[in-house]
Structures are given as structure tokens and as C-alpha cells.
């Protein structure tokens, strides 16, 4: 049975831990566009990165993996120069990986509702509703996070039933409101300026956005689980984007 793109990506990420070389053959040696701006471009950059990983300390545990056409996106727990949670996106052409994006954040303590950045529902379903769910989540991000149309907020949820995995925010719209109020008191603002990618499979949708958090240029990766036409669960990873003179490639974060 042919190995799926999803399986190939999970094996490639695991190879960072095991040091296996066979999974790396899924990368196109002649074209590999790297958007992790801490890593040099191309297969050579990937190889150089693997060589500096500490022996025996690197761990990769992929909890969720999804396919959207020629894209595979994953949600993983890492120990790569310290414990982190990350999203990775890989784009395929002719069966080979030709492009990669990611976002990494240091693991934080459980949030006010006791949830971690990686736990929660993993069941993939509603494959026939992928496009419908992508539209719902895209509209939510555009209405609420980009344009601040808070009068539309309640329409995306079943009351206060909303499972939250952001480490600083509790469950429900009440938890979100409480956190945003506390941030405002501290002068911390969060602004989404532009959406770059919306990917989905079944009841899961990942949105990649660019904006500002506390005055810092930030990449936002938000994963939503949709249930019966409403947003039911949310995970995210936020990464500050360094100044361009610190980038190791010129492909940009997005």
C-alpha cells in the first residue's frame, strides 16, 4: 500500500529525533523553499539544521496531522533546543516536498481551565464538510480577529461552550473576554493584520496570520475544531518574527 503524504511528513518529522535518513528522501533535493527564517534555504539548510540537533535530546511527537490537497499540516510536541509546541506545513509537488512553513512556541503551563497547548480532541471527521468549515473559520478570523466586528462573535459559537488551549486564556467566550480585559489593563494589544493561509481537513481548520502582539511583529497559527457548524475548540502557537537582518533565508515567514 502506498505511503500517504501525511505518513511521509510524520516520518520526516520523527527523523529529527531518530536520525533516520530514508524519510528525508521525500524532500525534493532541487527545490525546497524554507520559510523557517532561522534555517538556511534548500535541502542543504535542512541537513545543516539536523546536524546541530543535540544527540539523544531531540524529541518529536506529532499529535495531529491533516492533508489539504498538496499540503500537509501537523501539530506536534517537540524537544528541540527546549520543549516547544509547533505547527508545520509542507507543500508537495509531484510527490516530493518543495516548501515548508512552521511556527514554534515554548511550552507554557496549563491555562486557567487546566488545558495544555497540545491536548484535546484528535478525532478527524466530517470530511465532506471541509470547504464549509474552512469558510466558517475564515469568516470568523476576518470578522473578529482582523476587523474586530465583535457584534458577530456570538454567532460563531454555541453559547459559552468553547474549549480553549491558549495557555493564557480559559474556556468559553467568558474566558476570552476576561483575558482580553486583563491584557487591555496591562496595555497589551493583539491585532491580526493579514491572513496568509487557510488549510483544512474535515472538522479541523488551520489559519496562518500575521500581526502584532504587544507591539511585536508576530506570526499567528490558529487551529480550530468545528462541530455542527460552530467553533468548538481552539489551539494556537504564536512566534515573534525577528528583524530581517537576523534571517537565514530571504523567503519570509509566510
TrEMBL record:
GO terms for biological process: polyketide metabolic process. This is SnoaL-like domain-containing protein.
